[in-house]
């Protein structure tokens, strides 16, 4: 136990709180945790497992009669507590009246004073916005434009509110550039050249989307299920545009496994080997053999470099692949020509995707075109980092499936940017008939869960009468049925569960999978070398949602991510077992096979089910123990509402 943890533990002991909370409080409060907690016991509420009643009890033990109900420290902590609960549900802000009502329900006699206390001690920030009408006023028709309503006031956790403000400011900076990379005609011709060079074709809508991204500074490119191949083809077209215009390109995905899956699909389109590893597979659209292999070990960014070095987890900078605009050397990606004069145009260097954490670690970027795939899974804070990494004049492209659930982190970035009408929206749409997996996902997006024809067993429905039976079926599918029947190894099967607790929650499912796949005593804080792990926090080279395998423990945990990069995880609290993860944790990842499990008495929504299904690229098994609640939830719970300010920030900017 470190000295800092011991100090926090001593404070907890004096107030009658369990010492087991010390490591998480240290992570939440920072280096001064012991002193801060000693002075303000209500800071216990920074942990989600601590209730208001428990925090009040500890405050009375520590402060005695000084622990008054109207203590400003208590009022501020209760307000921040409500804001944290809202942030965990994805909200970036809470409207002032709603916040006051929620604080009042905690027994606070003067909610307005509580809000003021939170703003005064910096645990909350106050944001103001004018609600402008959606309809544009036409001055040619005469009359007087409608005046805006009174200013609305919102409260946010300081870090959450500032992240969304920063995102809006960075997007407005990019939007103000407004210089096209290519004109419409040239971009269209370049897309045709990319098709001819690559031996593929894109649909008319995809062609228009690619041209839009070349013309406009910020673009949201929407897509549907089964469009994995068309997305890869669109990226190859954008790659050629960036090369011919000498601006360079960087392509990112939220997680290492999503980047590896994208690289494999790009390699399939190009007809090259994605690297060592798995054999060919079929993609979700059912459009032919798909190389499911990950990127070459130690090289998620392409080429040689530090990516494979233990603890790095960072591929070489995107500009090394993409060229650096004017400074790009001959033959580099981003340069339309290579070799000696007279050699003629050369194909650009291979396009590779990188994890978003690795991309932003290389900020500022020296490229003129930045693309983020699986953008629905990225919250306001990470999106702000990406936008800030883009240089002036760069084009930012968000590739997003609007039917997916919003991000696990606060915000609904892609939807808000599209709704603001300050950026351009276009659609990537393949011309191929959807495969069974895409057909099921599309039906879910429309509110149904039908049976679909799946001759290749791309979709399997597995009924279960109880949570216990569902758990048994899941472990059986992962360890035996899917590897044996489909040739997809257990390492390429991801369990996606609707909840953490219960017999069919992630905790129990991980215990069952570990017993079969990597039994051991849990020698390292409950983990053993070889365990599949989920990273639940950010760090050098990794981000929440990354999965990998624990390879070594030498004071820090060494985790090997998809693509071969190894990262060091200093905080043990950042690790979870990763054979089974929640839908929120899976969002932003892609795997060859997914086992989606829905136990009894768990709220089900359409975006949740859709997101779980679309994490799979080849096969999905749906383990259903809901006794009809799955169909009801998909039909009736169509949207997950969130309170955000990004639309207003962009419109008012």
From TrEMBL:
Residues 270-348 are annotated as: Disordered. CDD domains: SF1_C_RecD. Residues 299-311 have a biased composition (Gly residues). SUPFAM superfamilies: P-loop containing nucleoside triphosphate hydrolases (SSF52540). Residues 320-330 have a biased composition (Acidic residues). Residues 3-93 form the ATP-dependent RecD2 DNA helicase-like helix-hairpin-helix domain. Residues 577-623 form the UvrD-like helicase C-terminal domain. It holds the Pfam family UvrD_C_2. Gene3D superfamilies: 2.30.30.940, P-loop containing nucleotide triphosphate hydrolases. Residues 280-290 have a biased composition (Basic and acidic residues). This is Helix-hairpin-helix domain-containing protein.
């Amino acid at each position: 136990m470190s000295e800092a943890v011991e100090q926090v533990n001593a404070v907890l002991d004096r107030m009658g709180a369990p010492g087991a909370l010390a490591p998480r409080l240290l992570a939440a409060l920072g280096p001064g945790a012991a002193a801060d907690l000693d002075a303000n016991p209500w800071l216990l509420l920074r942990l989600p497992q601590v209730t208001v009643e428990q925090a009040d009890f500890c405050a009375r033990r520590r402060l005695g009669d000084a622990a008054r109900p109207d203590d400003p420290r208590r009022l501020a902590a209760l307000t921040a507590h409500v804001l944290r609960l809202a942030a965990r549900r994805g909200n970036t802000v809470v409207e002032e009246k709603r916040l006051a009502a929620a604080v009042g329900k905690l027994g606070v006699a003067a909610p307005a004073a509580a809000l003021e206390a939170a703003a005064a001690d910096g645990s909350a920030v106050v944001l103001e916005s004018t609600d402008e009408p959606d309809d544009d006023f036409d001055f040619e028709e005469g009359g007087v434009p409608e005046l805006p309503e009174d200013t609305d006031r919102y409260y946010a956790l300081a870090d959450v509110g500032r992240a969304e403000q920063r995102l809006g400011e960075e997007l407005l900076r990019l939007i103000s550039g407004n210089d096209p990379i290519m004109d419409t005609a040239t971009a269209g011709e370049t897309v045709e050249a990319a098709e001819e060079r690559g031996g593929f074709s894109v649909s008319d809508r995809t062609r228009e989307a690619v041209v839009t991204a070349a013309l406009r500074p910020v673009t949201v490119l929407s897509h549907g299920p089964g469009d994995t191949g068309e997305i890869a083809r669109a990226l190859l077209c954008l790659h050629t545009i960036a090369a011919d215009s000498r601006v360079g390109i960087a392509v990112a995905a939220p997680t290492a496994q999503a980047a590896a899956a994208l690289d494999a699909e790009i390699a399939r389109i190009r007809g090259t080997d994605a690297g060592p590893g798995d054999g060919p597979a079929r993609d979700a659209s059912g459009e032919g053999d798909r190389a499911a292999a990950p990127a070459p070990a130690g090289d998620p960014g392409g080429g040689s470099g530090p990516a494979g070095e233990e603890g790095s987890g960072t591929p070489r900078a995107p500009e090394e692949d993409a060229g650096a605009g004017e400074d790009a050397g001959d033959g580099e990606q981003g340069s339309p020509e290579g070799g000696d004069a007279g050699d003629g145009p050369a194909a650009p260097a291979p396009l590779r995707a990188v994890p978003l954490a690795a991309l932003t670690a290389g900020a500022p970027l020296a490229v003129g075109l930045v693309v983020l795939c699986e953008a629905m899974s990225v919250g306001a804070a990470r999106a702000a980092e990406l936008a800030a990494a883009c240089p002036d004049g760069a084009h930012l492209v968000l590739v997003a499936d609007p039917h997916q659930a919003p991000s696990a982190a606060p915000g609904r970035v892609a939807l808000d940017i599209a709704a603001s009408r300050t950026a351009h929206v276009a659609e990537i749409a393949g011309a191929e008939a959807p495969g069974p997996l895409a057909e099921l996902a599309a039906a879910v997006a429309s509110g149904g869960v039908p049976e679909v024809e799946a001759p290749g067993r791309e979709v399997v429905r597995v009924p279960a009468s109880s949570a216990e039976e569902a758990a048994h079926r899941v472990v059986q599918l992962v360890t035996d049925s899917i590897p044996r029947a489909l040739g997809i190894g257990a390492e390429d099967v991801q369990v996606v569960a609707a909840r953490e607790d219960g017999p069919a929650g992630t905790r129990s499912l991980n215990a069952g999978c570990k017993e079969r796949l990597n039994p051991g005593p849990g020698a390292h804080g409950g983990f053993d070398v070889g365990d599949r792990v989920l990273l639940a926090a950010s760090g050098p080279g990794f981000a929440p949602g990354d999965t990998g395998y624990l390879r070594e423990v030498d004071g820090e945990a060494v985790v090997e991510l998809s693509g071969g990069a190894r990262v060091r995880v200093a905080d043990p609290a950042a690790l979870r077992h990763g054979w089974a993860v929640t839908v929120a944790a899976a969002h932003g990842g892609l795997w060859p096979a997914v086992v989606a499990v829905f136990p009894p008495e768990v709220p089900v929504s359409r975006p949740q089910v859709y997101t779980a299904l679309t994490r799979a690229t080849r096969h999905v098994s749906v383990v259903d123990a809901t006794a009809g609640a799955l169909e009801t939830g998909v039909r009736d719970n169509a949207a997950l509402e969130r309170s955000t300010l990004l639309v207003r920030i962009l419109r008012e900017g």
